[in-house]
Amino acid sequence: MEELPIVTTLYSLGDAPPLPDDPREGDRTVTLFRVGSLMIGARRELCLIKNVSAGGMLVRAYCVIPPGTRVAVELKRGESVDGTARWSKGDTVGIEFDELVDVVALLSTTMEGLRPRMPRIEIACVASVREGADVYRVSAVDVSQGGLKFTSQRSFAIGGDVIVTLPGIPPVAGNVRWQSEGYFGVTFNKMLPLPLLVGWLHEQRERLRATA
Predict the structure, then answer these.
(1) Which residues are 174's β-sheet partners?
(2) How far is Cα 37 from Cα 95, in angstroms, rounded to an integer?
(3) Each residue of 23-75: pLDDT tens digit?
(4) What is the 3-state secondary structure of the chain?
């Protein structure tokens, strides 16, 4: 039986605030967003964090937050970032930070501990996927310690074993777990080591800024 894609909090390496929602979130996905908190004046409100970049975030709010509202977002325990709600669409609110945050450092904290989270990090690079004796170039969309999402015009067998290679990361074995509208999800057989992934993300962020 085909598994549904799991949609978790997405971290972006770019400096600009995230764009509106991923249209693939819906009945054909399982959403597991990180819980966050917002300070609006003296009032604390819980939210679900959908997307974070250096410049801002998208949240699913449980109260009305009109554009122009000043907020303080807790990204790390005991540390908050000031920002402004710029737009809202249904229960989704786009927040722009007053100052850029270090997303890679935030990821390092998120993935540490006895039960590390495995947040997805938005990427845009060419990867290769080997299925049997054949190797295919695909477009990597996001990566975590535990897997990769990519898009491809060809089909890959659900449940099939593959070898994934990202530029600068040694090949890693995995299994194709789901597909939806040209997107595929691979679960790695072994989690990527945190230092390897964080170092690679630093390189990807600098490459992105150099081409901006």
Answers:
(1) 162, 188
(2) 13
(3) 555 555 666 677 888 999 988 888 888 889 999 999 999 889 999 999 998 87
(4) CCCCCEEECEEECCCCCCCCCCCCCCCCCEEECEEEEEEECCEEEEEEEEEECCCEEEEEECCCCCCCCEEEEEEECCEEEEEEEEEEECCEEEEEECCCCCHHHHHHHHCCCCCCCCCEEEEEEEEEEEECCEEEEEEEEEEECCEEEEECCCCCCCCCEEEEECCCCCCEEEEEEEEECCEEEEEECCCCCHHHHHHHHHHHHHHHHHHC
Q: Is the dihedral of CA 95, 99, 104, 105 positive or negative?
A: negative
d(CA 173, CA 168): 15
Tokens 């929602």 found at? 21
The one-letter amino acid code at 165 reads T
Angle at 14 between CA 120 and CA 171, to 5 degrees: 45
HSE-CB for 67 with a 13 A CA cutoff: 6
